[in-house]
Amino acid sequence: MYRAEGWAVVVVDNLSTGTRSNLPQGCTLYQKDVADPDLIDVFRKHRPTIVNHHAAQVDVRISVSDPLLDARTNILGLLNILQCCREFRPEHILFASSGGAIYGDDVPIPTPEEAAPQPLSPYGVAKYASELYLNCFQREYKVPFTALRYGNVYGPRQNPHGEAGVVAIFFHKLLAGETPTIHGEGQQSRDYVFVKDVVTANRLATQQRLEGAYNVGTGVPTTVNQLGTLILSALGHEGRDLPHGPAKAGEQMRSLLDSSKIRASLGKTFSWTPLQEGLILTCNAFRKSF
Hints:
Blueprint (H helix, E strand, L loop, with lengths): L1 E2 L4 E5 L15 E3 L8 H8 L3 E4 L6 H6 L1 H22 L3 E7 L23 H20 L3 E6 L1 E3 L11 H10 L6 E2 L5 E2 L1 E3 H14 L3 E5 L5 E2 H11 L9 E2 L14 H7 L8 H13 L3
Helix pairs in contact: 1-3, 3-4, 5-7, 5-9
């Protein structure tokens, strides 16, 4: 959350995956879940101008094995925030959606925002449902929003534990002397977008008060096999191959975003970091933690 006077930053995070060390200096932290009923007390005290909602259960496998847990965070948590926004009327909400999980496999490639969502996992269903709720609250209660549909975000300080964040998982395991496993045949393709570019998209979309849904991706497909090769190369392990294991339930085969809409909205100065360059920056950052 942000307040207009001096852009004071207020963070609500249960720290289930994040850490205090990642927080900016001078921010105010409330260690609580976004679904907690007393979240409204934070709104009442700080009356935010901008609400930037990135809290989520992001593991597709967990959503498949426990859809109710996923919905408690990703749907009920959003509704709790929207109820607070309905009462205290911030100027804008920015919501972190998914450009991969929402669309599914049976869509045009690269996929534009107008494609009919066909999510394959409860996580994708929750993200799509969240956008429908945002649209509803915009119509009924005049709460404007931007939904940024991210590709596969990677970069320094990404949490390497769990199943989310394949780039962080691969780097962490390899730097620890372990061997990561590629799920399935490795031909699953994704649109990998560097975290710095995502931050820039958030900042500019907030400044310009963009409304509606926007893809945030590079438009460049990369298979998991290709990603593994690039990560090994960044670590100086050219010529090495990674082993394969069983495919993950609920995982789609391809995701590639048409991001022409957000590029046109944010201007020619907005660009994407090439994957190889972003992986080297990520590699250097992870090396410092070993």
